[in-house]
Design a protein that fits this description.
Length: 568
Amino acid sequence: MLISKDWELMKKIIIYTLLIPALLFSSACNEEFLERLPLDSPSSETYFANETELDMAVTGAYNKLWYYPVGIAWFLSFDFASDDGWDRNGSDLQALGRGEQNADNGYTNGFWSHFYSGINRVNFITSEGSHLRQEMDPAKYDRLVGEARFIRAYFYAYLAELYGDVPLVISNLTLEESQTPRSSKEAVIDFVLAELNEIKEHLPMNAAEKGRVTKGVALALISRVALWNERWEESAAAAKELMDADAYQIDPDYEGMFTFAGDNSSEVIMRIQYLRGVNTHSMPRNFLSRMALGHSNKKPPQDMVDSYECIDGLPIDESPLFDPQSPFENRDPRLNYTLVVPGSRLVNWIYETHRDSTMTWEFRGDEMIRVPNIEAGHAYASFTGYLYRKHIDVANYPTDVGSTDQNLTIFRLGEVLLNYAEAKVELNQLDETVYEALNAIRGRASVQMPAIEMGKTQTELRNIVRKERRHELGIEGFRYFDIRRWKVAEEVMPGPYRGRVNRYGDGGWLAEAPMIDEIGTPSYNNISNADEMVVVETRAFDPNRDYLWPIPRIELETNTALTQNPGY
């Protein structure tokens, strides 16, 4: 099993994780009974005596990137409440996908608590450690504090996107100040972008230690947040600055970016770091099949499968290369890099999900033997008939599928290029740099989809970008936000969440290609055997409510200055 190469940072995490709870976060209140200083550990009255303690505190802020609200990394979990994903467990995330969330939903409430906990760590650093700038190398101080401020900005960007208006707290609060009203989303985003633009000048373009925030990371987040908030000029400018720095290049190996090898990818800007014995995650358990010892409890729909184009660049309802009886042939290679489809190999087995497939093939060295197929009939295995492949390194098949230290990518150049292309399209600046950005992604050696030719209209390019984001960034945590900011969630979310055709003796395939709309969303109204498709659940989406999450009830009760979002 490979391990993280960020050994220096991980050594600090090992040590500091043990110390930080005792060191950092005594109360900000000034009650007399709290004024006595502890004799066995530092307190807020004595902490930040030196550079080492500052380094420890910043490492403590990084630790808040480890969060698993439904058993997987937080930044990936959103997509399982989008039209690209479903959580099989009867969780509060599943309720979010159905539009049944309320102010007591554990999934949505958990993000509020976790993000503000991380913000509090950074506020402690910025409030209590400023004197150290005079006592250590100022450049190092600015870098370390800049890394922490990035994490605060990162969390605020997500809070604003999920809840809208939220309290903007950037310093320690006294008890009297704890009744804090919501700031406007615009004010929060103004703060986020201002912070990022300020700190990026104190950060190196590439870090000496993997996993640390860099100028490249800050620029990538600026391009993302500005795009999400229709600040097209700022998004395009940040993306262009990063592109022009030439510090990152498109990786020819799309699939490899999401394995252990991604640590050394030319495209990866930042990955969250894991190390066995310190912190691991359970992505293999969530994604792998039952035969591969996983629980396969995160499921893609038929809808996502059918959205991928054929290798001629045409949707499946227009391409002469599409055969409904061999539906995975001649398709955009990213389909098979992102998803596990019937008939493909997963670890040591051929993945088959049709109910008639009671036997399948197992690879034993150079031999293939027929074995009973758990996936065909197991109550919790089939469902949609598909699995996710991305983020799983099958070449380093874990002995414990519930614990892997494979690092996970949170920023890469592919997203930045798409941010740039979309921002330029929305500005109606349809120059050749837009085509270059799109074609750099589509033309990577392992993908080689046809180039987008010059001469498209703004509407045509907008639709191309939206399809490209679904295919290039599939199950990386962006789809949930994309369909909301484009205001198409009310169109793509309601209705049945479908799996494959899967009745005994029916052959297992759609009789015809579904109709594909301009942004790649299939409709099955024309399919003669659509009633044979598995329906996992029926979803709903209220456009007057569901574009924002509810403010947690407990927060409303403890902070009476807060107000609830409409509809909750």
